């Protein structure tokens, strides 16, 4: 599984302590702190702890990573990054309720934490909470209409789980536009859905 990182600015006057890719697409981890807290003398310790947690996540030592991240969130609950990564770690050890709480706390800490929306949507889909998955993905797109992972996941959701060909097609096409993907399988899905939507339009008399 390849690890991908978000583009998060380095330290300015504000700290950024902020969260794998297949189908559905998930982010690997958030590499920085993310909050509107002013830097204090304790930041270096928190940053060091956070970097140590990232190394544990890279090594897939999820229990140790979860323990370290839980300590960080207890000390600095205003940072969305540790909450997001804690959700990922807890999800990987099978603690789905704990993961859900962590992702929600990440969004509470920073409503713009797009990775938390995506991860929470994936968790809901895997739990069979399909309408909730659709809702949280949609909330994420309000934050970033061009997030390719959410478009992919909504395409999957509306294609396979909440069959709505027109919606699935729109999200697959947007994903393709954003990524310039030449994936043969994706092209076949798009062609299939275009044919399905044309058939529906002909059957209902709707104009295309």
- The ordered string of helix (H) and strand (E) elements is EEHHHHHHHHH
Beta-strand segment tally: 2
CATH fold naming of the largest domain: Serine Threonine Protein Phosphatase 5, Tetratricopeptide repeat
The CATH superfamily of the largest domain is known as Tetratricopeptide repeat domain
**Biggest pleated-sheet summary:** 2 strands, antiparallel
CATH architecture assignment of the largest domain: Alpha Horseshoe
Task: Return the structural class.
Answer: mainly alpha
Helix segment tally = 9
Main β-sheet, spatial strand arrangement? 1-2
Please give a structural write-up.
64% of the residues lie in helices and 4% in strands. The protein is mainly α and 208 residues long. The radius of gyration is 19 Å and the shape is elongated. Mean pLDDT is 83; it is low at 1-23, 36-42 and 203-208. It has 2 domains: 1-111, Tetratricopeptide repeat domain (Serine Threonine Protein Phosphatase 5, Tetratricopeptide repeat), CATH 1.25.40.10; 128-208, Serine Threonine Protein Phosphatase 5, Tetratricopeptide repeat, CATH 1.25.40. The protein is built from 9 helices and 2 strands; from the N terminus they run ββααααααααα. The chain has a two-stranded antiparallel ribbon with strand order 1-2.
Question: Which tags fit this structure?
Answer:
Serine Threonine Protein Phosphatase 5, Tetratricopeptide repeat, 2 domains, two-stranded antiparallel ribbon, 2 strands, disordered C terminus
């Amino acid at each position: 599984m390849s690890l991908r990182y978000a583009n998060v600015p380095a330290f300015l006057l504000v700290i950024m302590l902020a969260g794998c890719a297949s189908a559905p697409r998930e982010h690997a981890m958030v590499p920085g702190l993310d909050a509107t807290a002013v830097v204090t003398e304790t930041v270096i310790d928190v940053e060091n702890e956070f970097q140590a947690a990232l190394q544990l996540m890279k090594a897939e030592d999820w229990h140790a990573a979860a323990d370290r991240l839980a300590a960080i969130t207890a000390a600095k609950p205003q940072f969305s990054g540790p909450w997001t990564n804690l959700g990922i770690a807890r999800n990987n050890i099978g603690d789905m309720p704990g993961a859900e709480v962590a992702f929600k706390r990440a969004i509470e800490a920073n409503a713009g934490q797009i990775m938390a929306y995506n991860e929470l949507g994936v968790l809901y889909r895997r739990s069979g909470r399909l309408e909730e998955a659709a809702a949280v993905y949609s909330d994420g797109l309000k934050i970033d209409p061009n997030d390719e992972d959410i478009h992919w996941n909504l395409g999957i959701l509306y294609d396979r789980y909440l069959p709505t060909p027109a919606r699935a097609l729109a999200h697959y096409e947007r994903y393709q536009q954003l990524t310039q993907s030449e994936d043969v399988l994706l092209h076949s899905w798009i062609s299939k859905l275009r044919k399905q939507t044309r058939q529906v339009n002909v059957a209902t008399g709707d104009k295309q």
